[in-house]
Amino acid sequence: MIRIFHHYVSKMGFMLLLMELLILLTVAAAPSVTWLGRRQHDSPYLSALAFALVLVFSMSTLGMYQNNSREDIKHTLLRILPSFALGFGLLSMLIGVAPAIQFGPSALVVFMLGALGVLLIRLAVLASSRSSMLMERVILVGDGATASDCLALAADRAGLHQFEVVGCVPVAGEPSRVAAQALLPADQSLLALARSHGATEIVITVGDRRNGAFPVRQLLECALGGLRITDAATFFEREACQIRIDSLQPSFLIFGGGFDQSFLRAAVKRGFDLTASAAICLVTLPLMLLTAALIVAEDGGPVFYQQQRVGKNGRNFNVLKFRSMGQDAERDGQPRWASTDDPRVTRVGYWIRKLRIDELPQMLNVFKGEMSFVGPRPERGYFVEQLCGEVAYYNVRHTIKPGITGLAQVRYRYGASVNDAVQKLQYDLYYVKNNSLFLDLLILIDTVQVVLFGKGSR
To answer: Dihedrals φ, ψ of 239, to 5°?
Structure first.
């Protein structure tokens, strides 16, 4: 993995994006295509750049650069076709508003060559990513619950960035939570084990490091021998975009860097919030008017629903949403989690929730400065009080403005319990620690995918 603006991205995925961008630029700007497709006095380069960027954006929205996406010939073909169809639609709209971007009769040829180029690059990268020479091999020091979670993470990894846990080195005094076949022999030093198994990294999963059995001298020997020594918290941050609270030490938050809340970061984020919200308001205005009409037509009730939520620094504000439940959804005044097939949801409400249309009025909260476009989702004060008492570090998410969308929303299903809140908090902590404009843009792209496929809605 490499780090770009504090965010971890797959080296193989980043190389793949650059190669596909290059091949799409080459195909669109090739002299033969220019001669076939455009008038001789038109410059092909602006059109080629628009073609490449739009198609890379389309492939991104369908998850073709995500670490957890399945990569094989079948899935690649199934995603290339809709990606290029989406790209064609976006380019058609772009041509309508930017006359300088033009494609002639050979546009179909350009798309076919581009799709073929992407397919060939994907097959080559897929073959190389599965090579044992490029597979990262890891040894875990410890065989407890955290080690078990690391093994599960490695087993679930399906994307371009894969790693293999060759085994666990047990440490006396720690209850074992891994299978016996995953344990490595204790009669060899860590450095000897790493070299015999071709490991390049050692991950420390032991919770109690004051135990006399903790192999400090062997770890120093490994570090001097050129191996990477990584803490479990950093490992999960890098590989899962999570800060795991079950293995989190306060020192990691204090000395781990990040948490940028400088004036420059605040100004850039505010500019992004206003630009993104204004653009989406303009694009979705007809849809919002139609939604308002349907809500009124169904039961004659109010279009909007206001609910008090907890914002930055614990300040309360009223979040604005399209009403998706009946007018007496909480007649007893008792707040409750939303549930699957919630009977309180109206027929119109079901669809606007599924398509996330009910969130659109929150652009007004962004304009007022109460919310950001990207950030942790704001919760009701009743649940915040409950979760702060039960979940460690929950209040950290209130150090920045809440958002309409966020990392937890695009990586995890809809939260409807304390356990779900814990899982989402781990993504929120990662965002609070590593937030940047780059990460905001990636989350915005992933949000498009979530809306298109209705992921995580209730």
So the answer is: -90, -25
Return the C-alpha torsion angle 152, 230, 69, 272, nearest 10: 130
How many other CB atoms sit within 10 Å of the CB of residue 251? 10
* Mean pLDDT taken over the chain: 83
Cα–Cα distance for residue pair 455/354, rounded to 1 Å: 8
> How far lies 147's CA from each of 119, 188, 221, 241, in Å?
37, 20, 22, 17
Q: DSSP class of residue 10?
A: -
The 10 Å Cβ neighbour count of residue 172 is: 9
At what angle are helices 263-299 and 347-354 packed, to 10 degrees?
Answer: 150
Structure tokens at 28: 């669109």
Contacts 24+ apart (CB under 8 A), 181-187: 182/143, 182/151, 183/143, 184/139
Domain 136-240 has CATH 2.30.30.240: no
In angstroms, rounded to a whole number, what is the distance separating the alpha carbons of residues 271 and 254?
29
7 bridge partner residues: 4
pTM beyond 0.85: the answer is no
Neighbouring residues of 91: CB distance < 8 A, sequence distance ≥ 6? 50, 51, 54, 101, 103
Structure tokens at 183: 């344990």
CA 456 vs. chain centroid, Å, equals 13
| Residue 47: HSE in the Cβ half-sphere, 13 Å Cα cutoff | 26
* 37 pLDDT more than 60: no
The answer to whether the CB of 399 falls within 8 A of the CB of 368 is no
**363, 383 Cβ separation under 8 angstroms:** no
Q: Which residues pair with 321 in a beta bridge?
A: 305
Contact 376, 428 (CB under 8 A): yes
Decide: helix, strand or coil at residue 224: helix
pLDDT of residue 286: 93
Q: Which amino acid is at 133?
A: M
Is the pLDDT at 242 greater than 60, yes or no? yes
CB-based contacts of 32, cutoff 8 Å, min separation 6? none
What residue ranges of the chain are covered by domains with CATH 3.40.50.720?
Answer: 136-240
Q: Does 88 have pLDDT greater than 50?
A: yes
- Please, what is the end-to-end C-alpha distance for the chain in angstroms? 34
